[in-house]
Amino acid sequence: MRNDLWSLVRQVLESEPELTVEQTVPAFQDGNDVAILSVGTDRAVVVTLLTDIAPTDVVRQGVLAHQRMTALGTSRFQCLLVLPGIELSAPAVLTPRVVITNPSIDHIRASLVQMIKR
After folding, report:
1. pLDDT tens readout for residues 92-113
2. CA dihedral 6, 7, 11, 12 (to 10 degrees)
3. Buried b vs exposed e over 68-104: b needs ≥16 C-beta within 10 Å?
4. Alpha helices of the chain — where are they, by DSSP H?
5. DSSP character for 89?
6. What does R_g of the chain's alpha carbons equal in angstroms?
7. At what angle do helices 105-116 and 2-15 cross, to 10 degrees?
């Protein structure tokens, strides 16, 4: 599933010329992070995959992701939290640092456009 999400992210970045990412680093070590997208010198988007999350726990996971991004010590980091089991009509912006979505390519695209072009 991690490889599939990584492929989707790469596909979106390659197909959207307005998404300027200076460096894309896959994060395939242990943990839930799939990639880190450096957006200029002042921002980065961490793409995180969480599987087997109950619908009643989605907001809590988003809050935890927000806390993790703020704990990194700068306002540089944002998190695209991808939850395969969630049904959404559009990506959900939980905070300025966290967007929650499912692995639909259209949702991944919309999320990245929103996060990178802000």
Report:
1. 999 989 999 999 999 999 999 9
2. -30
3. bbeeeeeebbbbbbbbeebeeeebbebeebbbbbbbb
4. 2-15, 58-71, 105-116
5. S
6. 13
7. 60
Mean pLDDT value across the chain: 87
Phi, psi torsion values for 5, nearest 5 degrees? -65, -40
pLDDT per position as a tens digit, 8-55: 998 998 888 777 777 677 766 667 989 888 887 788 899 999 998 988
In a 13 Å sphere around the CA of 72, the CA atoms on its Cβ side amount to: 16
> Rounded distance, CA 100 to CA 107, Å?
9
Which residue type does 26 have?
A: P
The percentage of residues in the chain with a pLDDT greater than 70, rounded to a whole number, is 92
pTM value?
0.89
Please give the structure tokens belonging to residue 33.
């992070």
